[in-house]
Write a structure and sequence with these properties.
Strand order of the largest sheet: 1-2
Membrane topology: Multi-pass membrane protein
Helix content: 55-70%
GO molecular function, one term: potassium:proton antiporter activity
Largest sheet: 2 strands, antiparallel
Catalytic activity: Li(+)(in) + Na(+)(out) = Li(+)(out) + Na(+)(in); Na(+)(in) + H(+)(out) = Na(+)(out) + H(+)(in); Li(+)(out) + H(+)(in) = Li(+)(in) + H(+)(out)
CATH class of one domain: Mainly Alpha
Strand content: under 5%
Number of strands: 2
Number of helices: 30
Organism: Stegastes partitus (bicolor damselfish)
Structural class: mainly alpha
Distance between the termini: 114 Å
Keywords: Antiport, Calmodulin-binding, Cell membrane, Glycoprotein, Ion transport, Lipoprotein, Membrane, Palmitate, Phosphoprotein, Sodium, Sodium transport, Transmembrane, Transmembrane helix, Transport, Ubl conjugation
């Protein structure tokens, strides 16, 4: 049956009435099979030629009687609504396919959603071909880059987890910049070498030059964010691997854009100089940083505009969407990175916009972005299938097979090599399993196809072969790698994402660790990312929040703001679960500000104050002094090294060091004075006691006569010079005087009367001995009250 003209809608309405359950799907397919399908990228204006012809016909028939219609009101004019009607049918088909996919849980657990959507696109394109109609170029580059891609990137940038993204920014940039450059040059260079093999057998590959090969390598080397989102959200991989692969797919857009435009320009000219290479590096910096700057400017404008929307809450979500889309279009005007502009715009505006807008506006933004991005993603995969059927294709087994193999090999080598370098600087190392998932998750998608579709057939005669190879790589990565990555994750026991609700306790400990690490970096003099993050937070709190956030919320601490968000979320969950109906209205909420803000104590009387109340001026002065002194550490301290530590004259402990040094100098002077006193004679009591303490056995005693009365003195040991055992003293006293052992110590006897000429000499000697004895007994020696362990130096 061939449907023509106005009979189309009549047949469709008849089918819809005859079989209501299947009528809607048949309506969609049959309209898509209609022969008057126009490209979706065309303008949706009425048929001007039809009106022009009708006007001429009316002019020619002036004076003739017009035929009267039986029903002048009713008419079939499908041409007027063809474009919006077909767009609505495509969106409806995508939504029905997505709905049917999730109604079959067994199918969704085996096959990824993106694979089924591509299959649906292949079926729709095949039906259009079988009907003998021309397949519309649904995946036009203008349609893709201006309508389908921005919602997906805006959703990813607006809800981007900032903390893990910034903590792993160095690793992401290494994979996005160095990894993409490696893939592009490796794939392009090896393909050029393969094309030059067997010059005796001429083929189409011999027409390839180096620059077109490098251009193809730059197109096929970039990881696609749409494909990564579609696959990684289904396997629920852990947050680290997800942010590494998805962050790489977002940030490599700048490298892809620069390489694409550079090689496209150089391929047309045919020559490349060293200056061109330097300008290419500068172009990369301009494209990347320019895109970020444009997005940040529009994000600040969106946040500043949301400050004044308290009286018109209805248009709050509109500013978020319009400013974001304007950022993307402004970046595309100057060939900057539109993807990085959208990411920067969403990440910059979100904290300030959410502080200004109402909760209903926040819910609207969230669900509209999710819906818009989901529909765009579904349409992209369906259009990929339709475009595959449409063609045109130029199949070359050698080129396609080598391209697929090189994509896998270059990805593995790049990930392993870069990870070896990255792990030397990372605290949390990337394991072998992580490297495998990162390499295996490098999926290609519609961005590569759209860039290849943009190539000019006149400048690149191998465009059809390029498109065929690109579609083959996309199908291989999406079908083979996308379908097998989930079983491999379970087989390797890779850590998956744990759905854990954030709590006040976790937020408190997170902020505590941030402050602790910032303080440690300040003490060590190492200005790491914690230090700069603290600087940025202080600047944001002191200046930016006051300009972009309205009311008292600009002064609200981060912990209290997080608490308000958690309280609102808990209240909504309580109402949705039906628990709020059981709670009486008089009972206060269990989650209240009283849990984290203690009640104010009653005022204390003046008589009961332990400390006098300070006046406001004095208190502010004390705070200023403490603040200035506490912050001086960061300004003064450079670095710490125990080998090169030099005393700082501005440090507080430097005065104590000077005082200690001065005391040591004074003590040395006193010791010098003591040492200048004449030394005691060898037989003085002090020297005798010193010899006894050092070596009792080497001390020789003069022979004594029996007439001298003896006094037994126990030898003093160095360990306890003042200890005396009374029992030993009495036991030794009972022994005969002549039986004293060799260890009984020094024996001193009084002199007896003698006759003869030597009496005076003996009297003199005995007098000298008595004087020595009395001097020895009168000298107290070291005091028993002194502490033996007391140090000599203060």
């Amino acid at each position: 049956l061939k449907l023509q003209g106005g009979n189309t809608l009549q047949w469709l309405l008849i089918l819809l009435m005859l079989c209501p359950p299947r009528g809607l799907l048949l309506l969609t397919v049959l309209v898509l099979l209609e022969g008057s399908v126009l490209p979706l990228g065309a303008a949706s204006s009425p048929d001007i030629s039809h009106h022009a012809n009708s006007d001429k016909h009316q002019v020619a028939d002036v004076g003739h009687n017009a035929t009267k219609k039986p029903f002048p009101v009713l008419a079939v004019e499908y041409d007027r609504v063809q474009i919006p009607f077909e767009i609505s049918l495509w969106v409806l088909l995508a939504s029905l396919m997505k709905l049917g996919f999730h109604l079959i849980p067994r199918l969704s657990s085996i096959v990824p959603e993106s694979c089924l959507l591509i299959v649906v696109g292949l079926l729709v394109g095949g039906l259009i071909k079988l009907a003998g109609e021309e397949v519309p170029p649904v995946l036009d580059s203008r349609l893709f880059f201006l309508c389908l891609l921005p919602p997906i990137i805006l959703d990813a940038g607006y809800f981007l987890p900032i903390r893990p993204f910034m903590e792993n920014l160095g690793t992401i940039l290494m994979f996005a910049v160095v990894g993409t450059l490696w893939n592009a040059f490796f794939i392009g260079g090896v393909l050029y070498g393969v094309a030059q093999i067997q010059p005796a057998n001429p083929s189409d590959l011999h027409q390839l030059d180096l620059l077109p090969c490098l251009l193809f390598g730059s197109i096929i080397s970039a990881v696609d964010p749409v494909a990564v989102l579609a696959v990684f959200e289904e396997i629920h991989i852990n947050e680290l691997l997800h942010i590494l692969v998805f962050g790489e797919s977002l940030l490599n857009d700048a490298v892809t854009v620069v390489l694409y435009h550079l090689f496209e320009e150089y391929a047309g000219v045919g020559t490349v100089t060293v200056l061109d290479g330097l300008l290419g590096v500068i172009s990369f910096l301009v494209v990347a940083l320019g895109g970020v700057l444009v997005g940040a400017i529009y994000g600040i404008l969106a946040a500043f505009t949301s400050r004044f929307t308290s009286h018109t809450r209805v248009i709050e979500p509109l500013f978020v969407f319009v400013y974001s889309y304007m950022a993307y279009l402004s970046a595309e005007i100057f060939h900057l990175s539109g993807i990085m502009a959208l990411i920067a715009c969403g990440a910059v505006m979100r904290p300030y916009v959410e502080a200004n807008i109402s909760h209903k506006s926040h819910t609207t933004i969230k669900y509209f972005l999710k819906m818009w991005s989901s529909v765009s993603e579904t349409l992209i995969f369906i259009f990929l299938g339709v475009a595959t059927v449409d063609g045109p294709h130029a199949w070359n087994w050698t080129f396609v097979t080598v391209t697929v193999i090189l994509c896998l090999v270059a990805r593995v080598i790049g990930v392993v090599g870069l990870t070896y370098v990255i792990n030397k600087f990372r605290i949390v190392k990337l394991t072998t399993k992580d490297q495998f998932i990162i390499a295996y998750g490098g999926l290609r998608g519609a961005i590569a196809f759209s860039l290849g579709f943009l190539l000019n057939q006149d400048h690149f005669p191998m465009r059809k072969m390029f498109l065929t190879a690109i579609i083959t790589v996309i199908f291989f990565t999406v079908f083979v790698q996308g379908m097998t990555i989930k079983p491999l994750v379970e087989l390797l026991a890779v850590k998956k994402k744990q759905e854990a609700k954030r709590s006040i306790n976790e937020e408190i400990h997170t902020q505590f660790l941030d402050h602790l690490l910032t303080g440690i970096e300040d003490i060590c003099g190492h200005y790491g990312h914690h230090h700069w993050k603290d600087k940025l937070n202080r600047f944001n709190k002191k200046y930016v929040k006051k300009c972009l956030i309205a009311g008292e919320r600009s002064k609200e601490p981060q912990l209290i703001a997080f608490y308000h968000k958690m309280e609102m979320k808990q209240a909504i969950e309580l109402v949705e679960s039906g628990g709020g109906v059981k709670l009486p209205s008089a009972v206060p909420s269990t989650v209240s500000m009283q849990n984290i803000q203690p009640k104010k104590p009653p005022p204390v009387k003046a008589a009961e104050r332990a400390l006098p109340q300070l006046p406001k001026g004095r208190e502010e002065e004390i705070r200023k002094i403490l603040r200035s002194n506490l912050q001086r550490t960061r300004q003064r301290l450079r670095s710490y090294n125990r080998h090169t530590l030099v005393a700082d004259p501005y440090e507080d402990g430097f005065g104590d060091l000077l005082l200690k040094k001065q005391k040591m100098i004074e003590l040395e002077k006193k010791m010098n004075n003591y040492l200048t006193v004449p030394a005691a004679p060898p037989d003085s009591p002090t020297m005798c006691r010193a010899r006894l303490a050092s070596d009792p056995q080497a001390y020789s005693v003069k022979p004594t006569s029996d007439r001298v009365p003896t006094i037994q003195v126990d030898l003093a040991s160095p360990q306890s010079p003042d200890s005396v055992n009374l029992l030993d003293e009495f036991r030794r006293a009972e022994q005969p005087r002549g039986e004293a052992g060799p260890d009984q110590g020094l024996m001193m006897k009084p002199a007896s009367a003698q006759s003869g000429p030597n009496k005076s000499r003996e009297d003199d000697e005995s007098r000298d001995q008595q004087q020595k004895l009395m001097r020895c007994l009168s000298d107290p020696g070291p005091s028993a009250d002194e502490d033996e362990d007391e140090p000599f130096l203060p």
